[in-house]
Amino acid sequence: MPQPTSPGSSRRRPSRAVLALLLLASFTVITLDVRGGDSSPLDPLRSAVGAVVGPAESVTTAAVRPFRAVPEVFRTNGGLRHDVARLEAENSRLRSELASGSVDRQRAAELDGLLATSKRTGYALVPARVVAMGPAQSFSRTVTIDAGRRDGIRPDLTVLNNDGLVGRVVRADRSTATVLLVVDRESVVGGRLGSNMEIGTLRGRGGLGSSARLDLDLVDPSATATRDDAVVTWGSKHGAPYVAGIPVGRVTAVSASPRQQSTQAVITPYVDFSALDLVGVVVEPGTKSERSVIRAGDAEGVR
Prior knowledge:
It is a single chain. By secondary structure, the chain is an alpha+beta fold. The protein folds into 2 domains: 15-121; 124-283, Beta Barrel (Thrombin, subunit H). It is 34% helix and 25% strand. A 6-stranded antiparallel β-barrel has the order 1-2-5-4-3-12. Strands 6-7-8-11-10-9 form a 6-stranded antiparallel beta barrel. A hairpin with a 5-residue loop joins β6 and β7 (199-204). The radius of gyration is 47 Å and the shape is elongated.
């Protein structure tokens, strides 16, 4: 006995006749579109649909594009940060190489100056670098060099650079030594004027850099000094603590003291004590050292 059909079942299931009609209509539309070629009768309909759907697609694409680009943005920013870090490291390396290259060239020039000084004066020199400067609070002007007893350094040796007299060694340890600068207030050096060979006593004022000065008191009260006259070391007995003939500075001012019956001169040193780096310690020619000794008689200057 046939089951009764509910009123809503016919609406839920289209009949076979309707399906057949829809298939036939689809085939007909496809056939007309294919046969029509460039002048298909469906072009007006297609254009109308495109006019309605196209703007909607554009709006949807524009709205979705930022979300699609988010992962790419993070990847791009990460890459940029990596590139920036790499470039900063490269710039830092180049700046370091430039700075170290400039220092190396300066030290090479100073070493050439020590070679020339050794040849000119005949003194043997132990090269050393200034590695520390005494504190200003101690009211003394000293520096520490990286050469000591194992390098043939001992107290009361003359220290110079390619500009002139630096000072004398006052203490020597195994690998370092302390040098009292000639501008120290406790420093006393015998000096000689280059123009008339008059001798006197040089005393430091304690200044460094552009304020570095020494006072020269001539032994002969009737002797005179002239501006820009050169002053060299007079020399000590057996060359300790100062050897003779080392440039000290030039006369920048002259004054007479009737009470003391002497002539005084202000000396500006040749050495820039605020920029000391490479120095040479005067040693005996036969000194044994763990580092190369600059000897005047060497063909190449350093052995």
